[in-house]
Design goal:
Keywords: Signal. This protein is of the alpha+beta class. It has one domain: outer membrane lipoprotein receptor (LolB), chain A.
Length: 201
């Protein structure tokens, strides 16, 4: 009887130890990647006045990249360059008309580069298995210190099957200010390559 109990306990302990290894390897894939391309709908604002943009983004491993507006139509094609760890945005002649959000002066255009930077460089504070809709996911929370000293926590639901992000949230001082619903994602590539492929097709 005692041998049976010990065998059962060993099976339980082995099962408990398997998931963190899978989740760690999934996160390590982001930290080892050279670049990312993605598209997502970014939402922000109060429940009474929710605003959204659809953005396409390409980020390199050194923190540089480009963000392009897909929707709304009147801003389509507007681009912003991302440079350095502080995600400095430089626009040609205008900015997204949303101002900045929170004490960290975040713009909606910063959401996707910041989520990728958090997965690559952030301090992992929480991880668990949690589905997003019908998609089996690994939910990871990563902590960064903002440029103005605020606490930035990025929570991302990563597909267990593909490793791609499904949903992301950015909180400043425990208040969620930006959310992202991913519609496309790939490791590697650039926005320019995607546009060339679209024109060719």
């Amino acid at each position: 009887m005692m041998l049976l109990f010990c065998a059962q306990m060993m099976l339980v302990l082995c099962a408990c130890g398997a998931a963190p290894e899978e989740e760690e390897s999934l996160l390590e894939r982001y930290r080892a990647a050279d670049s990312f391309t993605m598209e997502a709908q970014i939402t922000f604002g109060s429940e009474e006045q929710v605003q959204s943009y659809t953005l396409r983004c390409a980020c390199d491993s050194d923190g540089t990249g480009q963000v392009e507006v897909v929707e709304p139509e009147y801003l389509a094609g507007l681009k912003a360059s991302v440079e350095g760890e502080n995600l400095t945005l430089t626009y040609a002649d205008m900015v997204l008309p949303a101002g900045t959000l929170s004490s960290e002066e975040l713009s909606p255009a910063m959401a996707l580069p910041l989520l990728m930077r958090s997965l690559r460089e952030g301090w992992l504070i929480e991880e668990s298995r949690e589905d997003w809709g019908e998609t089996p996911c690994v939910r990871v929370c990563c902590d960064l210190t903002g440029e103005n000293g605020g606490k930035l926590v990025s929570t991302v639901w990563l597909s267990v099957e593909s490793g791609a992000p499904v949903h992301g949230e950015i909180a400043v001082d425990e208040e969620i200010i930006l959310q992202a619903e991913f519609t496309d994602f790939a490791f590697g590539g650039t926005i320019e390559q995607e546009l060339t492929q679209q024109e060719a097709s």
